[in-house]
């Protein structure tokens, strides 16, 4: 526990100083390879799914969003990793929710490569204290300059600039940047306001990562996790319910009684086990 405390403090010092931080050996090799096996299967499955949106594969990035709904048994445990939760609690100092849990693989598409330099937060921030989003990227393979390691702009998290919307984009991205090279099994933490870009894969080496993106509880997530249905709900522990947003649903106004609960936030320990029997969608 003391180690976790020290490690989370180290992560926070680094993300506050540089905008990102790398922690080695979070997952062992076998775990990484097991997860990759599931991702490969999911990738094949999606290739045959006529509803699947292929967002960016022609530009050099395979994206599979919403992993915790597609295959909860394999991916749920990644979202409430102890170190991640410790960092979230210390930075936000209030409950957090999951924005998304998605897989990202780089592929070599030569000249067709494209990746916008961007921030994940909707609001840029001049300060660490007002960070609204934190991202934890599990590196399931070694991340190297040649296989498309994520590129970051150190200290850009304090610029207050939403780089993808800047009129000065072309000039600003010339600022000092670096490839975040990390060993298989590492987590790369970065603040949602840190400028970053998917790297270019030039050596065809596999590079799978899983991005777990978190926000403050009062921000709308990119997927409505609370519609996950009873069979997934049953699998969630209290922390995962919180991350799914079950403890921060806006209260309904009861028209008959002309009444509603005043608070949006509620304790996840007080959530009903039969949530989906009580609330019908
Ligand atoms: Fe991003």
**Tally of DSSP β-strands:** 9
Bound small molecules, by name, code or SMILES, are: fe (ii) ion
- Main beta sheet: strand number and arrangement? 6 strands, antiparallel
Give the terminus-to-terminus CA distance: 41 Å
**How many structural domains does the protein architecture include?**
2
Q: Overall mean pLDDT score? A: 93
CATH class annotation of the largest domain = Mainly Beta
Question: Gist?
Answer:
The protein is of the alpha+beta class and 281 residues long. It contains nine helices and nine strands. The chain folds into two domains: 2-216, q2cbj1_9rhob like domain (Jelly Rolls); 228-278, no CATH class.
How does this structure look, described?
Helix 1 packs across helix 5 (82-92). Helices cover 28% and strands 16% of the residues. A 6-stranded antiparallel β-sheet has the order 1-7-4-9-3-2. The mean pLDDT is 93. It has 2 domains: 2-216, Sandwich (Jelly Rolls), CATH 2.60.120; 228-278, no CATH class. It has 9 helices and 9 strands. The radius of gyration is 19 Å and the shape is globular. It is α+β, with helices and mostly antiparallel strands. The structure holds fe (ii) ion. Fe (ii) ion (FE2) binds at residues 118, 120, 196.
Secondary structure: elements and pairs:
Elements: H1 2-18, E1 20-23, H2 29-47, E2 61-64, H3 67-70, H4 72-79, H5 82-92, E3 96-106, E4 133-139, E5 151-152, H6 169-172, E6 178-179, E7 187-191, E8 196-197, E9 208-216, H7 230-233, H8 238-244, H9 275-278
Antiparallel strand pairs: 1-7, 2-3, 3-9, 4-7, 4-9, 5-6, 5-8
Helix pairs in contact: 1-5
The site of fe (ii) ion has 3 residues, from loops.
């Amino acid at each position: 526990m003391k180690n976790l405390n020290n490690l989370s403090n180290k992560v926070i010092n680094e993300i506050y100083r540089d905008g990102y931080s790398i922690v080695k050996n979070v997952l062992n090799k076998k775990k990484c390879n097991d997860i990759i096996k599931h991702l490969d299967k999911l990738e094949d499955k999606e290739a045959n799914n006529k509803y699947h949106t292929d967002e960016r594969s022609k530009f050099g990035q395979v994206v599979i969003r919403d992993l915790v709904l597609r295959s909860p048994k394999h991916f749920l445990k990644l979202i409430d990793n102890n170190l991640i939760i410790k960092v979230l609690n210390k930075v936000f100092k209030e409950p957090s929710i999951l924005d998304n849990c998605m897989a990202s693989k780089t592929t070599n598409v030569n000249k067709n490569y494209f990746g916008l330099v961007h921030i994940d937060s909707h609001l840029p921030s001049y300060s660490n204290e007002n960070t609204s989003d934190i991202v934890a990227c599990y590196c399931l393979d070694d991340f190297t300059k040649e296989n498309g390691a994520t590129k970051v702009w150190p200290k850009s998290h304090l610029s207050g600039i939403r780089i993808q919307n800047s009129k000065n984009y072309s000039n600003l991205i010339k600022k000092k940047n670096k490839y975040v090279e990390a060993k298989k099994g590492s987590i790369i933490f970065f603040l949602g306001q840190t400028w970053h870009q998917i790297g270019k894969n030039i050596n065809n080496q596999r590079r799978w990562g899983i991005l777990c993106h978190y926000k403050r509880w009062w921000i709308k997530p990119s997927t409505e996790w609370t519609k996950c249905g009873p069979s997934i709900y049953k699998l969630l522990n209290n922390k995962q319910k919180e991350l799914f947003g079950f403890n921060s649903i806006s209260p309904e106004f009861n028209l008959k009684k002309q009444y509603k609960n005043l608070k949006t936030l509620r304790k996840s320990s007080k959530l009903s086990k039969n949530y989906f029997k009580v609330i019908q969608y």
